[in-house]
Structures are given as C-alpha cells and as structure tokens.
Known about the structure:
The complex is a heterodimer.
Chain A: H1 2-28, H2 35-60, H3 68-84, H4 90-114, H5 119-138, H6 161-168, E1 170-171, E2 174-175, H7 176-194, H8 196-206, H9 208-213, H10 218-244, H11 253-266, H12 277-296, H13 301-325
Antiparallel strand pairs in A: 1-2
Helix pairs in contact in A: 1-12, 2-7, 2-10, 2-11, 2-12, 3-4, 3-5, 3-10, 3-11, 4-5, 4-10, 6-10, 7-8, 8-10, 11-12, 11-13, 12-13
Chain B: E1 11-21, E2 24-35, E3 39-44, H1 50-57, E4 65-70, E5 73-74, H2 80-85, E6 88-91, H3 105-109, H4 111-115, H5 125-139, H6 154-167, E7 172-176, H7 184-199, E8 203-207, H8 211-217, E9 220-225, E10 228-234, H9 240-248, E11 266-275, E12 279-287, E13 291-295, H10 302-309, E14 317-322, E15 325-326, H11 332-338, E16 340-343, H12 347-351, H13 358-363, E17 371-372, E18 375-376, H14 378-392, H15 408-420, E19 426-430, H16 438-453, E20 457-462, H17 465-471, E21 474-479, E22 482-488, H18 494-501
Parallel strand pairs in B: 3-8, 3-9, 6-7, 7-8, 13-20, 13-21, 16-19, 19-20
Antiparallel strand pairs in B: 1-2, 1-4, 4-5, 9-10, 11-12, 11-14, 14-15, 17-18, 21-22
Amino acid sequence: MKHRIAQFSYRYGALIFIGLVLVFFSVYNQHFFTYNNITDILRSISIVTFVAIGITISLTVDGFDLSAGSTVSLTTVVVAAMMVWYEMPLILVLIVPIMIGALVGLLNSLLIVKIRIPDLLATLAVMYIVSGIHRTYTKGYSIYNNMQFQDGTKAPGVMLDSFLWIGQGRLLGIPFPVILMLVAIVAMHLFFKYTRGGRQMIMTGSNEEAARLSGLRVNRIRTLAYVASGIFAAIGGILFAARVGSGQIDAGSSMQMDALAAVFVGYSVFGAGRPNIIGTFFGAVLMGVLVNGMTMLHVEYYTTDIIKGAVLVLALAVTFIHRKRQKV
Amino acid sequence: MTTPTASAGGHLHMKEIYKSFAGVPALQEVDFSLHGGEIHALLGANGAGKSTLMKILSGAYTADRGSITIDGQPVQLNSPAAAKQAGIQCVYQEVDTSLIPQLSVAENILLHQLTTSKGSPILNWKSLYREAEDILNTLGFAISARRQVSELSLAEKQLVLIARVMAEKARFVILDEPTAPLSMEEAERLFGIMQGLKSQGIGVIFISHRLPEIFRVCDRITVMRDGRRVSTVSVEDTNPGEVVHNMLGRAFEEEYPKVFTEIGEPLLTVRQLAAGRHVQDVSLDVCRGEIVAVVGLVGAGKTELSKLLFGAEQPERGTVELNGHPVRARNPHQAIRSGIVLVPEERRKEGILVKESVLHNLSLPLLQSITSLGIISGRAERRHGEGLITSLGIKTSSGQQLTGYLSGGNQQKVAIGKWMETDADLFILDEPTKGVDIGAKRDIFKVIGNLAQQGKGILYLTCEFDEALGLADRILVMCDGRITRSFAYGEASQQDLLYHASAGREELV
C-alpha cells in the first residue's frame, strides 16, 4: 500500500501540484482563471518553451546545452538588424537566424563529439563566444526602428509588420506564438515516440556505448541533436524579436536558466525520470503560472525567483529520490 | 621455505565459513589458514568462491556462519576498516580503484596517515617524503616518491599499493591476481617482492590462474571448487596435473548435446591481426556452420579481439575477410552492415540498454527495416519482439518491461536475440554464459546450435573450458594475446586447455 502511494505520487505528483497551484491562484484572484489571462500565460512561456525543447533534445542524447540562451540573444539582434539596418525580405529574415542556430549546434557538436570536450564545458565556452559575437555585432546597443547611429545618421528600415505578427498576432483568437508552441510540442513528442530518429536519440542517451555496439551511428545522432537544439533556440530568438518589436541586447540570458528549470521540472511529470517533451511543456507552464499568479498577488518580482528555485528543488528531489530507490 | 611454521608472524585461521547470497550458498564450511612467512596460493575456477572468501577476510562481506581467529583470538571483521585494524590488507586487481592518480607516490603510500583526523593538521612534506622513501627503499622499489601516480605504469602502481600495505603495517596480505596484467619481467620482480614480504614474516595469499608461477613461488596451495575447499597441500606434495584435476572435478561433457552440422565454405578469414599487447598477430578462420571457440584466461585478449573484429576498436595491422571480401570496419555500424555482429562480454554496460524496454532493445538493430518514411511501425516492432520473446523463451512480464529488471540469463537472451533477424553471417559471442543460470545457459547453447545449422559462423570466446569442449567444432587457445594452440572437437581435454591457456610453456609442467 505504501509502495502504491509512493508510486502514485511519483507519477502524478507534478500534475497534482500544478493543479493545486492553479486552484490556489484562482481562489485568491478572480482575474487569474480567465481566458485572457490563461492565453497570456501561454504566450509568455512560448519563447522559453522553444528554448526548452532544444535543451530537452540535447539532454535526451545525454548531452547538455548551455549555449541556447546566447543563441537566442544572437538571433534576436540579427533578425532586427536584417530588417532595420539592411531592409531584407521576410523570408531571409527567417532563414538566416535558423542557419545561425544550426551553425552554433554544429560548433557545439564539433567540440563535443569530435574533440570530446565534456558537453557542459564545451557549451559553456560556446555560450561565451556566441554572446560575445552578439554584443560585438551590435556594439552593445539594442536595435529598434530607424535607430540613430553614433555618427548621427538613421537606420533606413523598420521591423516588418508581417514579421511582428508572428509574435503579436492572433489566429482564431489564440496568440500565434502559442499555436506555434503547441504545434512544436506535439510534433516533437510524436518525433520521440514514433520515429526512428527520435528512438535513436533516446537510445543513444540511455547508453551510448551499447547503442554504438548495436550499430547506431551515435556521433551523427548526437550531432543532429545539438543542431536541433540550436535551431529551436534560434526560433526562440525570432519569436522574441517579433514579440517586442526590436532587437534587445542580452535577450536570451535569462531564458537559458528558465528553460533549464522547465526541462528539469519536466523530469518529474508522469514519473518519467528523464528528459521528455510533455514534461518540459508542463514544466514551462508551471513556471509561467507561478510568475503570473504571484505578480497578480503583488509578490515582489525578485521573490518569485526564490519560489521558482524551491519548486525546482522539489521536482528534482522527487525524481532523484525515486531514481535512487529503483536502481536498474 | 618448506614447512611454514610460525616464525616471526602470526596465525590466521578461518573456520567453517558459510556464506550464501539470496539463498544460494557461495561458500560451504570452508576452512582456510595462513601463517606468517608463508605464501599460500588460492586456486579455483570461476565461481569457485575464492573472491567471496577473500572478501570475507578483507571485511567487504560478512560470513553467515563460521569464525575467524588471529593468533588464537577470535576477531570480528565486519568492515574493511576492521580488517585493516587486524592487519589484513588486500591488493585488488583493479589497482586504479585504490589509488588517487593526481597525488604523488608518497601521498598514496601514506594515505591512511593523511586521512585520519589524528595527529597534526599541518602536513610535513619533508617527513612525508622521507617516510615514503624509507618504505620504498626497504622494499627495493626504484620509484621516486615525488612522482605523480597518474604517470606510473600498471606494474609500478601495483608496487605503490604494496608499499602502502607495508606502511599500514600489514601482517597478512591478499594479492588478487596481481600478475594478470604484468609482463614476464614485471611478474619476476613481483615474485622477488613477495619473497621479501615472506622473509619479514608476513603471510601472503596469492591468487593466480598461472600454474607455473604458483609452483615457483608458493609454499602451500588451497584449491576451491563450487564453494568448497577441495584440498590444501604443500607444493612438494603435489603436481600441476593433480591441481588441475582438483580444480575441475568431475567431467561436464555430457551436458552439451553437440549438434553436428555440415561445415560449409570459409566465411571469416583473419590474418596477422594486431593491436597493442592484447592482440598479437592473430590469424584464424571460421567456416559457415562452424562453431569456433577461442578459450583463454581472463586477460588473454579475447575481448580485445572481439572488439577489433567488430570495428569497435581499430587494429594496428592485419586483415579481415568475410565471404572473400575484405572488411575494413571503422565502426560497429559498418561491421554489422558487412555481416558481423557481436554479443559483448559486459552485458549490462554494452550488450543491452538496461533502462529501456525489452521490445526497444530487441528492435534496435532492426529499426531501419521496420521504419517507413522515418516512422517506426509499432505493429511490426511488437510482432518481431514478441516472436523473439516466445522463440527464445525470454522470461519477462511483457515486452514493455525494462530490460534491467530481467534475470542475467534473460538479459543475455535479449542481447543475443536482437541480432537473430539481422542478416548477419558471423556471430561473435564474448563470454555469453557469464552470470547466467543453468537453464538459460542451455537455452543459449541451443540458440547457438540453431544459428550454426542455419549456416552462420560462430566465434565463441570463453574462459569456461568445458563449454568450449562441449560446443565447439574447433578450439583455439589464446594466451597473452596470441593463439597458441588449435584443437579439433574431441581432441583436447580440460587439462590440455588449462595447461596451454595458463602460460602454455611446455617445459614448466
């Protein structure tokens, strides 16, 4: 019986906790559980969720990606610069940042897979490089419509309306970034559940040597995982620029940690005990709900970090206590 | 050095030691004694109970029944610390697990001093080095106390551990297969050191598989088999033949109903394959329908050979041909495509993915064929997996069960089963019966026989001689990286195999 309860709380504890948090905020603030507020929460987490999906992929192959946040920063300013400085067409504005994300992923995998630098350290170094590039490129200034350069001239372009719609528009009353996020969640979940590529990534992360000796080309699989991680971070960067309508400097630095937290909270969802897309989504939702709800209750902004940290500790504790018990 | 009497040293006596694991007895009423100033060999085949006995003596396990006395006083060895307190020290085969590579030789030798909370909290480097050098000099080791341990060779690391044992004032020392990784010269030096320990009145327990060296350096020999002590005799009163006979006991042959299949055309041709010390100029052939066993002791190079053939490691030179075509596998993926598959020795680390389900393990090498447009057909995967679960008799609650929860034998069936429906021509099996119960063993033998009947070639690497004798059409003996002898079915006895595998030097027996 005791075992049964432990098992149940391990599997559904995270979801029950999210439910309790929702109930709590709904009771204490009548404006919390409204359509507008819920879509607001979802829109606020959509960008972080994209970054978190990327990190989930890198963790699935037993890797790590610390460079995702800086990739968001770089792609955000590149997107803005392409429109404001160079007046490029929309299609290029979308393709180039994705290529940049893929390149960062390739650089990561070159260091990790070929040179065999431990993933945490390699992506830490790449994080510095990429974030340095983005600051150098903008000389430390944010990029906005017709911005004034230091020599007194003005930038020729503005952020395209069609581009801004990606971050600000609605489709059937639902914010477009939310739709994109849900599509990505479903697609990546199906990818890991039903496709060969997804299965190979899971198996590689589960035991790289056994996977290699079963004939998987683990180096290629890990490379693809890092490239995918970079691309998802780049999408996050595009969404961010479209949402705020400018190229903010250091846009991604806080996202790295928020995304990581969402992924690790996700370990405890359904008792997965490993990185998984659905868990990542719920992790992001929980974090978004906490921030939103506490803001409504006028909790001081910085205090929310303490709560977020505590929730992360709780989720990790559940996951790792369980893992220690049932050593396979 | 004949009759070991209690000279300077003491008496260690283990009496009627009984130990069981999960109800299965591992040791039954084992007596063992050791005197100071004696080198006592402990011998036995795999699973005979030597290491369990030694772990009890070194405090890693606690006996269920039985007593241990030192100098007539009963002692409780409930922890490694208690055993050390009683003067019992063990030098394990995996030296790297006991050393801290970033520290100097002196720090490693005197580790116990550095880690106690007694004494001065400030390190006196000068006296530390002096003390370590004193110990090294007494033992006659030419290693600088200031060198970092990570730079040392394997043999030198062993010496550091022996020096540590001296520093901790050991009275009884267990050397667990110390010569296995050593070259001839290094082993010679070790024997000298053992004689030194002996002359200081220290009792040494020496575990080794190599009979010639045992007869050279030891005073007494205890042989164990199936958890019991078979004999304890002094070396003058016995001979290698008798020891081998005691180790093996009864004959096992009747347990292997050998299926004779027609041997087909040549399948695998290996010439002059070499990599490092473990594989030296190995040449061998396997034909279709043929089971070729490569036997050898632990450390003979069998696993390394299998990894080379499977592309998991790269040879320095030599050629491999399969079906007359040269195979140059740079990784396992390419080896599998050319028709070579491997069931590796380290089952839980390399053979299966313990955290994944049985179905997912079984389908792993076949993902390509059950996928269309990148999407895995769940139905095909279940049909394939459940078919194998039935045909191989894998005992699992369902295909969704995590493979790590299966018994060793059933895990091994998964590790073999995943290759069954690939188009592989050559199956390499590395110690496939390690940690496998008798029932599953028989199933595995049957599977191997079936594969041979289908015209596959089998390369069976094992240190279980009786299995090779019972199963193989041809037996190759591997020793220190070389194939030293070849026997046809029925040509060799276990004695022959053990003799050639444990050094293979005719003049020594």
